[in-house]
Amino acid sequence: MIKYNLKCSNNHEFESWFADSSEFEKLNKQKLLECIYCPSKKIKKSIMAPMLLAANKDRENIQKIDKIFRKDKDNLIKIRNYIEKNFEFVGKNFSQKVREVYYDKKNNKKIYGTTTPKERKELAEEGIDLVSIPWIEKDN
User: Fold this and answer.
1) What global pTM score does this model have?
2) Rounded distance, CA 35 to CA 7, Å?
3) Is the pLDDT assigned to residue 52 strictly greater than 90?
4) Residues 6+ away with beta carbon under 8 Å from 132
5) SS3 (DSSP) at 13
6) Position 138 in a domain
7) Is the pLDDT confidence value at 51 over 60?
8) Is residue 72 located within the same domain as residue 99?
9) CA-CA distance, 97 to 109, in Å (whole number)?
10) Judging by beta carbons within 10 Å of its beta carbon (0-12, 13-18, 19+), is residue 55 exposed, middle or buried?
11) Residues 116 and 67 in one domain
12) Range(s) of the domain holding residue 75
């Protein structure tokens, strides 16, 4: 497959994919190509920069990034599973419940939940450090 930048007689520019360069020539001779913006059938190849080496390198980079992303996602799911198994979910009551745990030194309760930015700021001002964890959907 090859992608060409094309230009019609009205100077509209667009891209299209072809099996090879001879396919473009054949379709163009038969007037089977048409501008995507107007009915012009006078189509020429426009100047384009070849990207043969970059395409393979980009593909390799994308695959590396995807592999890292999947590993990170798996780790976040493991963290989520651990938290759900070992901590009590207190939902929107988190700021109240975390204060109870923090100020009652005998309380060893493990909790998790949600806060608003305002509540988070108030807790930080009280010296209560929190950790935010991206909550990855398990089936996504």
Assistant:
1) 0.53
2) 8
3) no
4) none
5) strand
6) no
7) no
8) yes
9) 10
10) exposed
11) yes
12) 61-125
What confidence score (pLDDT) does residue 13 get?
A: 86
Q: Say whether both 65 and 112 belong to one domain.
A: yes
Looking at the structure of the chain, the number of domains it has is 2
> Phi first, then psi: what are they for 16, rounded to 5°?
-155, 155
pLDDT mean across residues, the chain: 86
Token pair 């963290």: residue: 79
CA pair distance 127, 45, nearest whole angstrom: 65
Residue 75 lies in a domain: yes
Is the domain of 15 the same as that of 71? no
- Looking at the fold, whether 37 and 65 belong to one and the same domain comes out as no
Could you report the per-residue pLDDT of 8-39, keeping only the tens digit for each?
999 898 888 888 888 999 999 999 999 888 98
Please give the backbone phi and psi of residue 4, each rounded to the nearest 5 degrees, phi first: -115, 145
Residue 133 resides in a domain: no
Q: Rounded distance, CA 117 to CA 115, Å?
A: 6
Integer Cα distance of 73 and 134 in angstroms: 10
Cα–chain center distance at 74: 16
